[in-house]
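Researcher: I'd like a structural prediction for the single chain below. Treat it as a standalone chain; there are no partners to consider.
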Amino acid sequence: MKMRYLAALPILAALLAPLSSAQVPVFKFDKTKSRIGFNVKASVPIAGKFDKWEATMTFTSTDVKTGVLDIKAQADSVDTGSGMKDGKLKSKDFFDAENNPYITFHADKVVQTGPNTFDIPGTFTIRGVSKPQTLSMTVSGIGTGEGDIKGILAFDRKDYGMNSGIPFIKIADRVEVEVSLHGKRVSGPPMNVKQ
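Model: Treating it as a single chain, here is the predicted structure.
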């Protein structure tokens, strides 16, 4: 009798697995409509994007507060439109891409600050240095199952060991990481967001 119950456990687990994953919203980002970039005030504009990156957002329930956001950009995929600037940013003076190939942000909670605004406190890592930072975001399309997430994460480059400059260019210390993600709910119920 015991053996019959043990044999039924894998079947029961297989039947319940789709139910548990279907009870949480699942979102996918469209990379053709999304962008991870940056902007630094300087005597010669320094702005660009990362050509290679991944981003995921998962939830453990329909409560927006349970959101987990992960962003991972390849440091050597930086593209400012200038080979000279790209080379300098990839060097040991800035991203140190050879020794620290990824720039990451990980957050495991979301704080709603308004009807369509959110703060996402997490850990930002660049050059192998990790510090707490907050990504402030605005979301469009709430309740439709598809929309855009746009936000800024600002940090002081010197806090991460980027103390050098670029010859003949005056660079500000503040760097803004610009996140623009187009997402779509591909399964599960709608999110519970305060309007």
